[in-house]
Write a structure and sequence with these properties.
The protein contains 13 helices and 18 strands. The chain has helices at about 30-35, 55-70, 120-130, 145-150, 160, 195-200, 255-270, 305-320, 335-340, 365-380, 430-445, 480-485, 490-500; strands at about 5-10, 15-20, 25, 50, 75, 95, 105, 110-115, 170-175, 180-190, 210-220, 240-245, 280-285, 295-300, 330-335, 355-360, 390-395, 415-420. The strands form 4 sheets. It has a 7-stranded antiparallel β-sheet with strand order 15-12-14-13-17-18-16.
Length: about 525
């Protein structure tokens, strides 16, 4: 086990402060219930104990102890996983990284260090307030960086700045060798780094696969400056925001299809890496008819030349020929950090239960797919105002990177789609809501075996929106394995990294990278 000092830098300029010792929480401890529960309360684990680690040294010791005892260990950063990756019934040790939340400038590496338990909201605040920079990460502030970055990381600035992993310089990972001993490896993107493949695997290979990421270092490629204010993209000062909402009343299938087709077609025409519209991001959230209305948010950096005209042109293109007037249409210019960035996290309900599914679009939906969306969201027989389709802007600078340069291969898509049954609170409701979203998704992808097989229109799915149904032949009848839907041709290389750095398959879950043998 690599020797590490039991201190960590403070989240900003200053002297390193002593880290607290590891904390072990057992089932008879009143803190246990809160610590084992994550975002999705369909899954509640019952580990022998929760180990809260505050340093890399403590993480390595916890991992080695669990392996020596033959206990299955999983790591949690923010606990926002859609599936049971950290909440499976066979989990015996839950390693909680939330005490590791420091964000600071590392002068030696000329990069920003972010510990594995930090949340996105905390990272945004420290980077913005300290240096005026940011990363193109997500809009759910409660999400931990551990799962978000390792899955690729995208958000409202990705069309402008690419994915978070496009700015990932290095990772610090606790791995376990064939001998069961834990060791700490730092892997960088430097071409001559002997551990470069381990860095590459964390640029979209998903969390919980190769080891425990205790620290990320972020610096944009090609930056030569030592000035921390130049190491990452500049945070916008102001955003011009347009919010529209359409009523379901009077929204015929023809009107709905026109709006959906317009939205997809706009992104199809404006998602090249150097498009002037790369500064514009949109989120169309089509909630179920029982919600009464659904809405669109489009935003653009207010200081981009012609920002007002570009935003107006997009809205004009989206509404052309729809024939149903919005019930709300508001435009404003707001400060980026203070006002524009509300978290899109689902409500923090102590009993919230969820089922989400996802896909990439390379082109607009086919007419048959749009008809399927309308049947399920605009039809009768199901009543859930939170059920929805979310179509989020993609492309732009994301598509300036080659599919094999990072582990995430979807580099010519235009939109991310997520299909959700929303939130419910009763276990008795599980069959109705899970069954509904499964049939909805299967109907949209009926022509390709119920899943978004990579092709002219679709391009698989996103591992940070995991869906175990993709590995279930009852719901995936395409003959295309789940790992091709997520990783495409990058999967064999990910398996080679798995073989080298986790030969005992210590780190695994329902959709983890499988050893090659």
């Amino acid at each position: 086990m690599t020797e590490m000092t039991a201190v960590r830098p403070a989240p900003g300029p200053g002297t390193p402060v002593p880290a607290p010792g590891p904390v072990t929480v057992t089932p008879d401890d009143p803190r246990y219930g809160d610590l084992v529960c994550g975002y999705n309360h369909r899954f509640t684990p019952a580990p022998d104990y929760v180990r809260r680690a505050a340093t890399t040294e403590q993480v390595a010791a916890a991992v080695e102890e669990a392996v020596a005892a033959g206990r299955r260990i999983v790591v949690r950063s923010g606990g926002h996983c859609f599936e049971d990756f950290t909440a499976s019934p066979d989990v015996q040790v839950l390693l909680d990284l939330s005490p590791m939340s420091a964000v600071y400038h590392d002068e030696e590496r000329r990069a920003f260090a972010v510990e594995g338990g930090a949340t996105l909201g905390h990272v945004y605040r420290v980077l913005h307030d300290g240096w005026g920079v940011t990363i193109p990460a997500g809009t759910c502030f409660e999400v931990g960086v551990g799962g978000h970055i390792t899955g690729g990381g995208y958000g409202h600035l990705s069309r402008r700045d690419g994915l978070v992993v496009d700015h990932l310089y290095a990772v610090e990972v606790v791995v376990v060798g064939e001998d069961g001993r834990a060791r700490v490896v730092v892997a960088t993107r430097e071409p001559d780094d002997p551990h470069r493949d381990l860095w590459w695997a964390h640029t979209g290979g998903g969390g919980g696969n190769f080891g425990v990421v205790t620290r990320f270092w972020l610096r944009s490629p090609g930056v030569e400056s030592a000035d921390p204010a130049r190491l990452l993209p500049a945070a916008p000062a102001r955003m011009r925001r347009r919010d529209l909402a359409w009523p379901w009343a009077g929204m015929t299938e023809e009107a709905f299809t026109t709006l959906l087709r317009n939205y997809c077609a706009w992104f199809e025409a404006n998602s090249e890496p150097d498009s002037p519209y790369r500064h514009l991001w949109s989120n169309l959230i089509v909630t179920h008819r029982s919600a009464g209305a659904f809405g669109l948010t489009s935003v653009i950096d207010a200081d981009v030349p012609d920002a007002e005209r570009l935003l107006a042109a997009q809205v004009e293109a989206l509404t052309d020929g729809v024939g149903v007037d919005p019930v709300a249409d508001a435009e404003q210019v707001v400060p980026w950090m203070e006002t524009w960035m509300p978290s899109y996290s689902w409500p923090s309900d102590p009993n919230g239960r969820y089922k989400h599914k996802a896909a990439y679009l390379r082109r607009r939906y086919t007419d048959r797919q749009m008809a399927a969306v309308y049947r399920h969201l605009g039809g009768e027989g199901y009543d859930n105002p939170a059920a929805c389709l979310v179509l989020t802007g993609f492309g732009g600078r994301v598509n300036a990177v080659a599919p094999g340069a990072t582990a995430i291969p979807q580099r010519d898509s235009i939109l991310k789609a997520s299909y959700s049954a929303g939130m419910w609170v009763s276990e008795e409701e599980d069959p109705a809501h899970i069954g509904w979203v499964r049939e909805y998704y299967r109907d949209v992808y009926a022509e390709t075996g119920g899943v978004p097989v990579p092709g002219e229109v679709d391009d698989g799915s996103y591992i940070s929106y995991p869906d175990v149904d993709l590995a279930d032949p009852a719901w995936n009848t395409s003959g295309v394995p789940w790992h091709e839907l997520y990783y495409k041709g990058n999967y064999p290389r990910l398996q080679a990294v798995k073989d080298r750095y986790d030969p005992r398959n210590v780190f695994h879950h329902a959709l983890s990278i499988e050893p090659s043998s």
